[in-house]
Amino acid sequence: MERLLLTRGPDSRRRALMDMMGGVLEVKKEDILRMVIPQPPFMVKPDALWSEEERKLFKEYEKKVKELNEERDKYRKSLETEMKKLQNSIQEGTQNFDEHLKRLFERRVKAEMVVNQEELKINNLIFSLLLDEEISSRETFLNNYLARKQEERNQTTEAIRKSREDLDTYKEHYDNLLAEDKVLDRSFKKEFSEIPSHQVDILYKLFKRRPRIHKHKIHAETTSLVPFGERPGSGKLNKDAFAQLMKAMDDLDSTNNMPEGLDTSVWEHFCMTRRAKVENEQKVKQKAAGLIEMVAFLRRRTEDDEKVQHEIEKVFHELILLQEEKVKFQLNLTIQILLKQGQVELENFQLMLDYSDAILINKIIIEDLNSVIRTQGQKKVASMMESKEVHKGIFQIEWEHKKMEMEMEDLNQKAWDIQMLFFSRDRQKYLNEPNYETLIAIQIGIMEQTIAVLDKTHKKNVENCKKLLKKLRRYSNQKDIANYTLSCNLREELVAVSERKDICNAMGSKLTCEKIAKERYENMMRQQKLTKISKQQADQISILQAEVERLRMKTFPALVQM
């Protein structure tokens, strides 16, 4: 039993805690408000079936529910006020934190700005030191190079001077040998003037004749040697060539080559002269070859000297540029200036850090310039407004002028209409006569008398017309009787005429021609009569038209033009 109680002990405690305290040892207010009041079981039934006790229980239930709701509302409001306080405190804390963080960030930005400025200064100093060191090293190198080139130029200048002196001396010897060779050539005919001329010509041809000698190839290395020093092998080559030439001359000096009829002594003298000429020519050739080599050597030395001079000038130019650049870097110093945003005014400024063409200007100068610009702008605006008012007045005057011109045209048109208005005599009288009504009354009386007279006259005329009508009727009856008589006579006459026509036709065409002529004459007379009548009628019509025009003009008003 005890073991059973021990095993069931915790469960019974938990169940008791759940039944009595709702599973907690301490009851909180929100737990109480979270509770739900159970409805009475009788609320399932309709209201009409409730008893008095049930109604009382229902009222108590409603009261408890109402109190619980009120407590919930109060608690909710208290929680809302507490939540607002907490939100305000949180917002204040966040604002304070943001402000503190902002101040720290600004301090950090300023510190970084100062650090960057100092680093920029250090970098500028390092750059200037490196640049100065580079310029100094470059200047030292150029000075050393210039000294070497100047020494080299002195050597080349000395070599050129010596070469020119040697060339002048050598050229003088060459000119002397060349002159001697020409003298030998010119004095040939004088020496052999005693012999005949044809033999002299043959000897002169033999004098110009030279033996053929095999030429040795000279290596290219010998051309690069200095012509003023000892050249190994050159003397030996010249001696060999001269020996071959002399050997060939011995063959030419043999008596087999002597012309016919020539004396032996003359031939020997000729051979000696030719040999001297050949020896002189050989010397001239050697001197010419040496002269060519000396000229080539002098040209090469001159070209080398020009190259050295060009390099020296180039080095001098580089030194000048380097010194200018050095002076520029010494004078054009880099200075850091702190400027506020909005005080930098550059054309096409797009956050570029290139201020190479910028100028630092004092703020006072800019303000003075802005004030001058503002003053000039105000003057310009005032002048524009004044010009606007003047133009406005001009337009108004032009409009008034056009208005007056149009009114004048309207008045002229009205005056013309009044002048051209039809104005009868009655209207003229009405305007001109002061007693127009009396005049009208008199005219009415006269017209009444006239009407009475006309009435009497009309009656008399009617009676006369009636009498005349009776007479005319009687006369008409008489005429009818006469016409009847004439018609009877006409029939008889027609019968007679037809008989006569037949007789005339039988008689011939003579009477017919006379009849035609007579008819033509009658037609001409009738035409003349009608022409006269038409002329008279035309004259009468013109007279009547003139009278009508005169009467019409009398009715127009005669007004003075305004």
TrEMBL record:
Keyword Ribonucleoprotein: no
Gene Ontology CC annotation, any one: axoneme
Protein name, UniProt field: Cilia- and flagella-associated protein 43
Gene Ontology terms: biological process: sperm axoneme assembly
Chief subcellular location: other
PANTHER family: CILIA- AND FLAGELLA-ASSOCIATED PROTEIN 43, CILIA- AND FLAGELLA-ASSOCIATED PROTEIN 43-RELATED
Coiled coil: 51-103, 146-180
Compartmental location: Cell projection, Cilium; Cytoplasm, Cytoskeleton
UniProt keyword annotations, A-Z: Cell projection, Coiled coil, Cytoplasm, Cytoskeleton, Repeat, WD repeat
